[in-house]
Amino acid sequence: MATHHLKLNLDKTELLFMPYKTSPLHDLSITFDGTMVAASRSASNLGVVLDDHLDFKEHIRATAWSCRFLLCNVRRIRPYLTTYSTQLLVQNMVTSHLVYCNSLLASLPACAILPLQQIQNAAAQLVFNLPKFLHVTPLLRSLHWLPVAARIRFKVLTLAYTAANRTGPAYLQDLIQNYVPARPLRSSTKGQLALPPLRVKGSRSSRLWNFSTLAPQWWNEHPIPLRSTPTLPGFRRGLKTHLFRHHLD
Prior knowledge:
Number of helices: 9
Organism: Synaphobranchus kaupii (Kaup's arrowtooth eel)
Shape: flat
Strand content: 5-15%
Oligomer: single chain
Strand order of the largest sheet: 1-3-2
Protein name: Reverse transcriptase
Largest sheet: 3 strands, mixed
């Protein structure tokens, strides 16, 4: 920072310690310019709350609370709005929060993202001004909204498309490799991605839930015509239609 003529703002500096599973928790702290910075359990970075276990529980809790607050405000003025106006309002104020950086949640189980799905269900019921505990699948189908889990998969596969076609960021391209069989096979023309080994040699950590593993696995599960779509807009349209039929039809 000194080389680039930058000064650290200690009032906005946080220390986040992410221990390995077998490591004991330590009360760490650092001292900079005579000021001690103590470790915290979570820290916000560009709107994403990172916690010391990287399970994103704090981020999901904060997102759900923010969306619930926005839905409450929209509900107050719902009697004065049409269905279409409410839909636009909810999509801009609530759905935008649900999809923001949602690819980070790709490795989480369904029970972890359930609070976000409950928010989406409540938003759909609010759009149609219907009571709670009503079956929401017909509502999501009518609104053409993908469920939260499908939206996460949509984002990850969109990133995989840009990486596979070498139009995405270089750090994502390095994580994606096209599948090349050892000998000529029919699978070589299917546009598949190579699955990396689940464990790195010499390491006990697993890459089962990494982007480099999840993205190729999900990519190879989808139809060949979808994977070979020549343009990104066309791929996004086809992917949304495929996921919509899979999750809601």
